[in-house]
Amino acid sequence: MVNAADSPDEAHRRPDGVSDATVEALGKLSEALEVVEHARGLLYGFHRLTGKADLALGAAVELMRAAGHADIADRLNAIIIGRNVIDGRWTFQIVEDYDENYYSAFVDEERAARQSLVEGKKHLFEAEMKENRRTHDMPHHEARPTGV
Fold first, then answer.
1. How far is CA 87 from the centre of its chain?
2. Which of 101, 104, 140, 141 fits a disulfide with 134 by CB distance 3.0 to 4.6 angstroms?
3. pLDDT tens series, the chain, 148 aa
4. CB–CB of 121/14 below 8 Å?
5. pLDDT at residue 148, rounded to an integer
6. How far apart are CA 49 and CA 79, in angstroms?
7. What is the pLDDT, as a whole number, of residue 41?
8. How far is CA 105 from the centre of its chain?
């Protein structure tokens, strides 16, 4: 007999009638979304680093000016500070466009697929992989946190 506390919680059990192929396909869709999440994080990192560089450049320009190099300071100020990183856009506009035109559509479609196929449940492929890989009745191989 299986100990109910030593099995996945209801949120991580496949609904009746859902095939292995469906769970595998949703697992691959989840993997793709995780890559998009990672890419989005890198894009936000790019946004933050570019902004930080622009602010540091502003400080460098002021130091250049104080050191008597107004011509270089003026050139850096005119050509680089506040410059678009791609045609017509600062990084915040790139992030917004990515979020509005790609990321949000991807998230919505992944959610819709889960809703349609498995009652909205997340990570079924991974939950089943965990069940197949863990050693039952061994410390640190529990199905879920103690008391849940």
1. 26
2. 141
3. 456 668 889 999 999 999 999 999 999 999 999 999 999 999 999 999 999 999 999 999 999 999 999 999 999 999 999 999 999 999 999 999 999 999 999 999 999 999 999 999 999 999 999 999 999 888 999 988 887 6
4. yes
5. 65
6. 19
7. 98
8. 14
Q: How far is CA 39 from the centre of its chain?
A: 6
Q: Are 83 and 128 in contact (CB under 8 A)?
A: no
Contacts of 73 (CB under 8 A, 6+ apart): 61, 62, 64, 65
Which residue is associated with the tokens 């992989």?
129
Residue type, 11: A
Q: How many angstroms separate the CA atoms of 64 and 61, rounded?
A: 5
Percent composition of the chain: helix, strand, coil (DSSP 3-state, to 5): 70, 0, 30
Distance between CA atoms of residues 108 and 111, nearest Å:
5
pLDDT of residue 1: 45
Q: Which amino acid is at 54?
A: D
Retrieve residue 110's tokens: 């992944």
Exposure b/e, 22-37, CB count within 10 A at least 16 = b: bbeebbebbeebeebe
